[in-house]
Each structure stands twice: as C-alpha cells, then as structure tokens.
Amino acid sequence: MKPEIDEAVSEIFQKQAFVMGPAVASFEKEVADYIGVKNAISCSSGTDALVLALKGLGIGPGDEVITTPYSFFASASSILLAGATPVFVDIDPDTYNLNPSLLEDAFSEKTKAVLVVHLFGQCADMSPVLSFGQEHNIHVIEDFAQSVGATYQGRGAGSMGTVGATSFYPTKNLGGAGEGGAVTTNSSALAEHLKYLRVHGMKERYYHDNLGWNSRMGGVQAAVLNVKLKHLDKMVLRRRQLANRYISALSSLEKDGRLFLPSTSEGNEHVWNQFVVRVENRDEVRGQLMERGIPTDIFYPKTISAQKVFLDRGYDDQNTPIASFCADRALALPIFPELRDEEQQMVISALEQVLSKKLSVEPTKLI
Ligand SMILES: *Cc1c(COP(=O)(O)O)cnc(C)c1O
User: Fold this and answer.
1) How far from 284 is each of 42, 294, 360, CA to CA, in Å?
2) Could you tell me which of 70, 147, 252, 361 has the fewest CB atoms within 10 Å of its CB?
3) Sheet (strand 39-43) strand order
4) Ligand 1: distance of its center to the CA of 119 in Å?
C-alpha cells in the first residue's frame, strides 16, 4: 500500500491540512458506511473514544457501568476516567466476551450503562445485552477496538448500542500510522454533542458551553486510514483463512485436551484481530515456543479488576473466576495478513512439538 499511502500523505502536506480537514471528514463518512452506522466521530485514540462516549452520555460520578474484566485496561479505566464506577461481571469461556446471563445480578439503581467489549475480533452476544439495556432503560456502549468489520446477526460491531468506541492503533485490524480512534452512533443529537466535546466543548469559536478537551484526529492519520480502509476486507479474509487453518491443524491437539481453540459463535462474522488458545503451563509453553523462534503474546496476563489501579480502589477478581482462569492460560499465536503459509506452518509444527512433550503438570480440563 506504500505508493498509495505516500501519495495521500503528500497531499496532506501540500494542503497543510494537518488537523481535521477534508481527509478526516471523508474518513468519518467512509468508516461509518463500512460499519453500518449513521455517524462516526473521529478522535485521537480508542481510549479517548471510550471517555467521549461515556461523557457524551452524561455518565459520571455516582453512576455505575457494568463491564468485563477481561479486556485491555482502557475498557474499564475509561469508566474511572469519566468519574463513574465499573462493576465487573464474568465472561463466557468460549468467546472471552461478557456473559449476558450475569447482567441482572450486577444491576443496581445506579447502573447507567453496560459497556461490552467485542474482544479479539468477535462480537459479544448482543441480543440479550440489548434486551437488558431496553428493559432497564440504560445505555449499551460497545468497545469494538478489536472488531472493526465484525458482524453479529448481520449488524456491524459499533452499530448496535447507543454508542460505540473504536481504536486505530497500529495493532488493530484497521490500524493507522500512529494514534487514532472514533466514536460511532445512530443518534444525530449525540453525534453533534460529541463533535463539540472533542474540540473543548466549543460550538462557536472561543465560546465554551461544555467541558470538552482536545481529541482531534490528524490529517495524516486520516489519509493513511482512508487508504487502509479500502484494503480492509482483503486483509480480514486473509486473517480468516489463517484462523481456519490453525483450527483444522490444531484440532487433534484439542481432542487430546492439550489445547483449547477459539471458535466463531453462531450468527457472527469473526475478524480475528487475535487468535488466542488456552494451554496449561502457559508460560512454559510460551518459553519453549520462543526457543524455537516463535513469538507469542498474552492477552491478558491479568484481569482488569486484579490490576493495581483497581486493587487500590477495593476491587479484586474473586467474582470473575472464568476470567482469571483464562488470564492464566491464554496464549496468542501470530496472526496478521502478511503472515505467509510457510511461516504459519512453522508455528503449527513448533506448537505440536512443544505440546506433545510430557508437561511438568498434567493437563487439567481447559473448560
Ligand atoms: C486498543 C484498545 C483500546 C484502546 O485504544 P487506544 O487507541 O490504544 O487508546 C480499548 N479497548 C480495547 C478492547 C482495545 O483493544
């Protein structure tokens, strides 16, 4: 994509349109169409998108937001940053997403929203989440930083709740050349409000009615993202091909109880931002893969409620045992559009070798 990107970036320099401007406006339109939502409001990061979404809905001190402890830190730290209180519910071990059957018990008079995360490229089970929101007349906020382009029953991630928040950090499926994010909503009133919040709450130049801050997107970022968006479907197809190949190649290890594979729930189109398996003795397995030249990663080594920031605020991970179980065993294998077939075969062979060895601890049930 380099020639296309170089040209688009050079145009930004020619126009000196470094902040907002035409490239940002066209990206907002294109990405909203891609997701299937009326409005996308670009901003400076996924974290800011989450804080904008919460503040845009007027959620703050005294309010509770139900969310998952199994995600990147920002999913829940954004709730603290907005001044509200996160309430954690456990996850579904098959999808790593929030378990909707636990929402009712977490509800209180103070609950103002459910913040679901569509983790690793697959949407959470939205039907019961949306019904729960309607029943209690509270908002549903979607963190789809890892799932741009994923669908649930034909609806795009980021288009189903009151508001969605996503990230264009370089490791995401739609990654820019730096920081970026967007808030999505079908409500034009909320969209207008968010546009002002992102520029210091300023409707008329130098007149401030709301307390906003600077969360604008740069023109260079939008220029790069406009090019990459055109190639996104192709990149997702390649991720899907790689995921299917991992699944068929590793299924016999799963039958032997050596490994737990990710899967796609019915009604979902998975975009495979990550391919996360579970293994016993995860750190040992990871070390042995590294010795064979296979880099892996851990998403996430600790639940959010067990992070020091949350422990210091009186949280623990006692009520979310499935999330803790997954945090101890999750191992992310290499997956990205440029991964070649022969490279993936090296990963598969190395994993087969490592997992066929006698482990220092016998495998327990990986759920
Ligand atoms: C990356 C990510 C974020 C934060 O996005 P940034 O652009 O890095 O601020 C939030 N939530 C999830 C699930 C993410 O993966």
Assistant:
1) 42, 13, 9
2) 361
3) 39-43, 181-185, 163-167, 139-143, 111-117, 64-67, 85-88
4) 10
**Under a CB-based contact definition with an 8 Å cutoff, are residues 205 and 5 in contact?**
no
Residue nearest to atom 11 of ligand 1 (CA): 75
Residue 359 has pLDDT above 90, yes or no: no
Which residue ranges have their beta carbon within 6 Å of ligand 1?
45-47, 71-72, 74-75, 117, 143, 145-146, 167, 169, 181
In this predicted model, what pLDDT tens digit does every residue of 187-243 receive, in sequence order? 999 999 999 999 999 999 999 989 999 999 999 999 999 999 999 999 999 999 999
Helix axes 282-291, 341-356, angle to 10 degrees: 130
State the pLDDT at residue 364.
57
Give the pLDDT mean for 60-76. 98
Q: What is the distance between the alpha carbons of residues 23 and 278, in angstroms, rounded to a whole number?
A: 42
Report the percentage of the chain scoring pLDDT > 70: 97
- Expressed in angstroms and rounded, the spacing between residue 291 Cα and the centre of ligand 1 is 30
Query: How would you label 137-148 residue by residue, b for 16+ Cβ within 10 Å and e otherwise?
Result: ebbbbbbbbbbb
- Cα 53 to Cα 74: distance, rounded to the nearest angstrom: 13
